[in-house]
Write the structure tokens for this entry.
Amino acid sequence: MTSGNLSIGVAASLAAVDAADWDACACPAVESNSEVVESDSQHDRDHPFIRHAFLLALEESGSAVGRTGWAGAHLLARDEAGALLACAPAYLKAHSQGEYVFDHSWADAYQRAGGTYYPKVQVSVPFTPATGRRLLVRPGPRAQEAREALVAGLRALRREADASSVHVTFLPKDEWDMLGAAGFLQRTDQQFHWLNEGYGSYDDFLGALASRKRKALKKERREAVAAGIEIERLTGAAITEAHWDAFFRFYMDTGSRKWGRPYLTRTFFSLVGERMADRVLLVMAKREGRYIAGAINFIGADALYGRNWGCVEQHPFLHFEVCYHQAIDFAIERGLARVEAGAQGEHKLARGYRPVTSYSAHDIADPSLRRAVAQYLDRERMHVEAINEELEEMAPFRKGS
């Protein structure tokens, strides 16, 4: 389709899109070496998950492809000369798995009423509940035009694919506001992030906590490694295929019990290790010379993103040490502004993580379904706001800290 003087196309594969062009839209401040002022603190100047290399690894590894229910339909907005001005990672979905923003009840209700909910258009990073830009626009005089073209393109894709809806998930608030003004329904949810208040060390962070909480975390960290467990933090060339073999074993064991079917293939980890090793932090726990647990994190310019964890031995507090405390240590050392520890988990609150709001936007074609969902979301947003305020009061920090 065309929108104004821009043409909107769809790429079924990221392999058909030039990596440098995509990344110039995804991380323009880094790729162009220019200063791009963003209006929302949830923007990461160099977000690992929206980069071409990460999204292509999901595809080439067989993790996010048509046969797993993630058929690529990536939107591309080009100018009259064919230059890429904007893009969006989009998929035609045949189910609602691996999204972390749950619409199963919407699908069930619609299908009971005789509607067909799938396919739907999903604008997101598969299996990755991390906030990041979804309307990827190259800076310049036509940026607003390109952004509006992407929105028009999403609705055109919905119509052409005979999809029930468009879902843009884990987007920053400024994009959420913009899509709300364009008529998308607005949804909120909750995550827990650790925020770096300029701490020079983990002890500095502990000093901001109430005395009882501070003592509890010190004891927890001691007990986590009390069984002779060693912790290793690996990034870059230090990560070998042997490390990926061990981590994948943990991922499959824990993921099979937690989700029933883990989403990521073994090949995915090799690909990100090959192409993005400097963006990966692998935290591994070893006992008696054998790796027993691990967590994978991805490193942005401004944040550390905790993603997957697994283990083959159960030890008290080891999960908290590997996933949360080590992430805080690393963020302080690197001067990162925050740690995003993934979806859900009120247990993170006691480890110094704070409740934050996450955002999604939804465009639903059927007026009856749209009306019912809109009423539900009005109530849900108020509930999320109230719960976040309540949880913030429960944070372990000293009063006034």
Q: What stands out?
A: The chain has a mean pLDDT of 94. DSSP finds twelve helices and 16 strands in the chain. The first strand starts at residue 2 and ends at 3.
